[in-house]
Design goal:
alpha/beta, 310 residues, eight-stranded mixed beta sheet, globular
Length: 310
């Protein structure tokens, strides 16, 4: 029996995407290692480390994140094209990756990015892994875009949130998509809700902030810890981006469906909750166990022989 080349498509999801680490670990332990990995945004980070044989380093880095350490990565950019420069995160990831070239890695890998202006989908399959990851996770408005090959690139989830098509293009014959879901994004969000427009009388009447330290003000603005409960800038941008990403993913996956899907359901983990990495990783591992159990019940596992003859 000729085994099919397994491809894995890892999508975005900000902090929730740390679940990809658990997914990759559980698949490896089950002896189901994909030979081809396509990643977008944080899915590119997890997929890149995995393809380079350094997933354990990413796991250790993620496990060590506390809320205070997350705040240290928020290098506020007071003048520029984004809220943060992203330099601290970039240096940390680069220090763990080193000078790795994508084409020299043990497994085929592609990071998906979006060209600013044209909206062109860009597949980064050669060159610096660190630079490719930086481009793929450059959230618009949050992190600065990066210039590569004369193009300004930003987060790939704008055009291909779960890059099944990229995995197929690299030669995958059986593609497994990993999707991240939270409790609030249900099927009924596709249908409109009628509501009466009225200002919330419980909202604070004044926008003037109380006198606080600069750190406290920045923390409040970044994390949304306001007296009136209003969200901070990153949450507004991330939530808007995530809603758009979910809609695009539904459309892309309907047009180019994967051969199998691992659905990770995350409850209690926000888009900025990077300090809850261990919880996200464990839920990723749990999702793989449910997936494998379902495949065994259906009989035939991944149906490698049939996929290989396509």
């Amino acid at each position: 029996m000729v085994k099919a080349l397994i491809g894995l498509a890892l999508g975005g999801g900000a902090a929730r995407g740390l679940a990809h680490i658990g997914v990759l670990e559980a698949l490896t332990e089950a002896g189901l290692e994909p030979q081809i990995v396509a990643g977008t945004s944080i899915g590119a980070i997890a997929g890149g480390f995995y393809s380079a044989g350094r997933l354990h380093e990413l796991h250790s880095l993620a496990r060590g994140l506390t809320l205070r350490q997350v705040l240290r990565y928020l290098d506020v950019n007071l003048a520029g094209s984004s809220l943060m420069t992203g330099k601290r995160l970039e240096k940390t990831l680069a220090s763990h990756i080193g000078d790795v070239q994508i084409e020299e890695m043990p497994k085929k890998f592609v990071a998906v990015a979006t060209e600013l202006g044209s909206g062109q989908e860009v597949w980064l399959t050669k060159g610096s892994l660190a630079a490719a990851l930086r481009a793929s996770y450059a959230l618009p408005g949050i992190l600065k875009p990066i210039r590569i090959g004369g193009r300004w690139l930003m987060d790939g989830a704008l055009v291909n949130p779960v890059p099944v098509s990229a995995a197929r293009a690299l030669g995958a014959q059986f593609v497994v998509a990993v999707t991240i879901h939270s409790g609030q994004y249900l099927r009924n969000t596709l249908f409109p809700v009628e509501a009466e427009a009225q200002f919330d009388s419980k909202a604070a009447s004044s926008e003037d902030p109380p006198k606080k330290s600069r750190f406290a003000l920045v923390k409040r603005q970044l994390l949304g810890q306001r007296r009136d409960g209003a969200p901070g800038i990153p949450r507004v941008v991330l939530e808007a981006f995530n809603i758009t990403q979910n809609r695009i993913a539904r459309s892309r996956l309907a047009g180019d469906p994967p051969d199998a899907t691992i659905q990770v359901h995350l409850d209690g983990i926000g888009l900025f909750d990077f300090h809850k990495a261990e919880q996200a990783i464990e839920q990723g591992r749990d999702a793989v166990q449910r997936f494998l159990s379902a495949m065994r019940r259906e009989g035939g596992g991944f149906e490698m022989d049939r996929a290989a003859r396509r």
